[in-house]
Amino acid sequence: MKIPKHYLSYIILTIGAFIMVLPFLWMITTSLKPLKMTYSPPYLFPKYFEFKNYVEAWNSSNFLDYYKNSIIVSLSITIGTLVFSSMAAYAFARLNFKGKNLLFYIFLGTMMVPFYVQAIPLYKIVEWLGWLDTRAALIIPRLFSPFGIFLLRQYFISIPKELEEAAELDGCSKFYIFWKIILPLSKPAIASLAIFTFLFGWNDFLWPLLVTTRPEFTTVQVGIANLSGKYGTLWPYLMAGTVTSILPVFVVFILGQKQFIEGITMGGMKE
Prior knowledge:
By secondary structure, the protein is mostly helical.
């Protein structure tokens, strides 16, 4: 019996999806295990429902402050990135100035530099400015996004120039065109960048670990790492904290998935 090609595709996609979900199933089942069953053989679907693990994980650390810090940092980075990236992208897409292409390629080149190479110079700058153990250290160095500039520039290029030319004939300024025409037509790309940036800010671990030591500035990811003890790790508590940390990310993606998919698939690579 010959299996139709689209059935075979569905089977492969289903297997791939199941493999992707496996770590999350393991995380959830571990978060619901009794402590005495921590090192029992792994299983995929919950057999126990120790919801008190979530309460204990929440009470063992100052998670309320961790969440507050992560929300403030993530939203600030997202808003700042959208503002600066959209303005830079508009300049690269629509304005003509000497060295525009060279400067854009330099921006793109910074995407190839790993963060681990940038970490030490950034840390020394933050230290020199006296920003260590402040939210400024968590937010300001992360506002620059070459990826955001690239994504929005490519989308702005896909917008017909006739709309901009008609606005110029009506006497509209460049800023008015940018604010009233380009941005409203670019909502899918802006939503995609907002989701990317929020996820990046929420899940960032290394940079907050480097520049903050005071508990009042600790973010969720660093706070979860603190659940690992010196002489052992209470894995159900650690997994419970991890599950709660992904809920905001899940909600953001569910709310913005339509715009996210549209922004990625429409006009992203048009020249």
